[in-house]
Amino acid sequence: MLTRQEQLEFIIDHYENPRHKHPLANADAMVEGGNPGCGDIVKVYLKIEDGRIIASFEGEGCTISQASASFLMDEINGKTLTEALAIDHNELMDNLGKEIVQQRTRCATLSLDTFRAAVRKREREQLMANS
Amino acid sequence: MSDNTYANPQVLVSTDWVAQHLDDPTVRIVESDEDVLLYDIGHVPGAVKIDWHTDLNDPIVRDYLDADHFSALLQAKGIAEDTTVVFYGDKNNWWACYALWVFKLFDFKDVRIMNGGRKKWIDEGRELSKVVPSYPKTTYRAPSRDDRRIRAFRSDVEAHITKKLPLVDVRSPGEYSGQLLHMADYPQEGALRGGHIPGAKNIPWGKAVAEDGTFRSAAELQELYGSQGITPDKDIVAYCRIGERSSHTWFVLTYLLGYPNVRNYDGSWTEWGNLVGAPIEK
User: Which long-range contacts does A42-50 make (Cβ < 8 Å, 24+ apart)?
Assistant: First the structure.
């Protein structure tokens, strides 16, 4: 179990050295979450190849929202959709450090909600393409 | 007061002033932010952090900490009765002003704001540190918290409505009109109803700051508030959603313009907009 300081350093490392932070060419779906008027924005790119997730993000805003997006991208890349969709808000916040992010649960879970929206958008577009 | 001079110019210090006093043992620099991790990413060298949520609020009751806990907090931060405390933070110093306001509830003597806040310090390319300093514990003892002078409660607001005294709603026009139930991206701090307290004037906090985050001139501030009938001869109550943005306006009216009777209603819209039977306007 990480100490609070270690957990803090873990979050800050994700904020300062974000993983998978880039646009994704030929993504199956792209969704922008957050509110442009407030400063927390997370844009998730999603692609499925051979049944596995390839995902990336772009964004700006507070430390927690951006670190959460980086951490989530690390978690879901290479997973199946079923595995990735099993991640819930509590699990994400536990991994980020609930004590640290609990004051800003909306920021901490923005990436997950945006990823889920990208999954739904991809499904809708595939349904339309096949109909 | 001349048009170009703040009523209490000593309460504002520049980033230059702070840079020159980083090692001054009589000065304690305090960072207070909305983004709770900014301090850990880097802060003004030697600054301590005060978290508005965990340090200044009672963990159970919706209220501020009492004198014993405030004393313990300041002792631990190395702040004594005669320390000059300079606050700064993100979001144009919202939480810096909020922390200053809480310090004034305990009648702390010398409190100041770094004009332009954290953003200006960074924009000027000044040094940031990740070192969390520790200072010798002090023997500071706070007096009992005095809520009468600068804090307004629900009953005070009700009396204000009855007497048709001025209320200043410092939220965005969308929140004031009721189009938004909460500030953008702060859904956990919303209310059941949208609108404003009857009779309140809408003067968004942000109109008091320039593009670089510093406060507007005394003349501009006088025009901003005076043109809306918010003048120094009146008993004024300011509010927003939880009292942070209205702390900013309270600071402007009280210290920069020298208004003698300004109170901050920290219950604000999260209380009034959820209150059974309370009148509102849209």
Answer: A42/A66, A42/A69, A42/A110, A42/A111, A42/A114, A43/A114, A44/A69, A44/A111, A44/A114, A44/A115, A44/A117, A44/A118, A45/A118, A46/A115, A46/A118, A46/A119, A46/A122, A48/A81, A48/A122
